[in-house]
Design goal:
The chain is an alpha/beta fold. Helices cover 42% and strands 10% of the residues. It has two domains: 2-115 and 193-348, Alpha-Beta Barrel (TIM Barrel); 120-190. The protein contains 13 helices and eleven strands. Strands 1, 4, 5, 6, 7 and 11 form a six-stranded parallel sheet that branches. A three-stranded parallel sheet has the order 8-9-10, with no helix packed on it. Helix 12 (263-271) links the parallel strand 8 and strand 9 (276-278). The chain is globular.
Length: 354
């Protein structure tokens, strides 16, 4: 394996920070997640942690932020993150992270804690799996999307439909979907118990997990107007800080696309005290750039060879592809005009795990 890291560097890119992202750690997919590729089994997650702790140095958010203060990252650093606040984090992820000494960041939507509501993705997924795409398209038409071409998959709902509608239009769609599908969302959410409780978030924060902002209702940020920031960005940050007793310093846009980081949103994040943003485009984060934006790799492998390919090879190839397409754009995402940018100290990474 050490030799393979040398081969990967032949691609011409050095890594500043590896970031990985997980969602639901559970033995089986449920109707709420089937088809979204967010599920990783506990055994595969354990294998991932064993790989990361053997070949990398796990770091926390404070280590990353400390770079701007002149502190260098350790050799071959890796940051482990979790999106969406699934209850399985408490059951599986947290105990295994503690066992292997791995810090973590939890990017949460406060609206769904305590299981009184379903996140839009899980509601859509449930309806599609049990009732089919026909009911999804009927809800789209009811919500005024008659001109939208027929949606054929879950991916099209999230990548085509959601980015094209406003926050209010999305709620009309979700209400129509629940009505047409005969779904009692509150009852279903309580029975499913998909998400963490507020008490569990407090316990996780107290045990050392960093809490991050993921918007209040898991919305595509490109559809937000400045008038929406208060209830989606600022409200979520305030609620998470109140229930965790810690400062929320990081933000991850749902779906992880750089296209959702509008200039208005970046300004709001800066003014509201967020210090770093994490995307999920599975691109390598090269050294030598000043930014407060890092990309993450979604992990689905279960063997060392595949882990290596997902973390070291594919992200570098994507970064090279992006550089060839747009050589004037940072390959790991947009540069953000945040205070305390990550600068020269970050370039001091060295040692046997380079």
């Amino acid at each position: 394996m050490p030799g393979r890291f040398g081969i990967a560097r032949v691609l011409g890119l050095s890594y500043l920070l590896r970031c990985v992202v997980f969602h639901d750690i559970s033995a089986t997919e449920s109707p709420f997640t089937k088809g979204m590729r967010v599920n990783v089994t506990p055994s595969d997650f354990k294998a991932a942690l064993k790989f990361l702790t053997r070949y990398y140095t796990p770091v926390g958010l404070q280590d990353v932020l400390g770079v701007s203060e002149g502190r260098a990252l350790p050799p071959r650093p890796v940051l482990v993150t979790f999106d969406d606040g699934y209850a399985s984090i408490m059951e599986w992820a947290a105990p295994l992270c503690r066992k292997y000494g791995v810090p973590g960041i939890l990017f949460l939507n406060a609206a769904f804690l305590d299981n009184e509501r379903l996140a839009p993705d899980n509601l859509v997924c449930y309806a599609a799996n049990l009732l089919g795409m026909k009911v999804i398209n009927a809800a789209v038409r009811t919500a005024g999307g008659a001109g939208i071409p027929k949606l054929k998959s879950l991916a099209e709902v999230f990548s085509r439909f959601f980015p094209s509608i406003s926050l209010a239009e999305r709620q009309v769609f979700l209400d129509a979907l629940a009505h047409l599908g005969g779904i009692n969302e509150r009852q279903l959410a309580g029975e499913a118990g998909l998400y963490l409780t507020r008490k569990q978030v407090y316990e996780l924060a107290a045990s050392g997990f960093e809490i991050g902002n993921h918007t209040y209702t898991h919305v595509r940020c490109r559809s937000l107007t400045p008038a929406d920031f208060g209830r989606e960005i600022d409200r979520n940050k305030a609620e998470l800080e109140a229930l965790s007793g810690t400062k929320v310093r990081s933000f991850s846009p749902p779906y992880g696309s750089s296209a959702d980081l509008t200039s208005d949103l970046v300004l709001n994040l800066q003014l509201s005290g967020h210090e770093v943003v994490f995307l999920s485009e599975s691109v390598a984060n090269p050294r030598g750039t000043d930014r407060a934006c890092f990309d993450r790799v979604s992990i689905h492998a279960n063997k060392d060879d595949n882990f290596f390919f997902e973390i070291e090879v594919l992200p570098r190839l994507r970064a090279l592809r992006n550089r060839l397409r747009s050589p004037w754009v940072c390959s790991a995402g947009p540069q953000l005009p945040f205070p305390q940018p990550l600068g020269d100290a970050a370039r001091g990474e060295s040692g046997r795990k380079a």
